Amino acid sequence: MIRINLLGVPRKTRGKRAAAVSVPGEGSGTLVLGLVVGLGLVLAMAASYVWVTREQGVLERKLQQANTENRRLADVKAKYEASKRKADMFERRVKIIDDLKEAQKGPVNLLNLVADTVNKTDAVWLEAMTTDGKSLNFTGMALSADAVADLMSNLRKTGAFKTVEIKETSQDASVKELQAFKFELICEIGLSNKVKES
Question: Does 16 map to a domain?
Answer without folding.
Answer: no
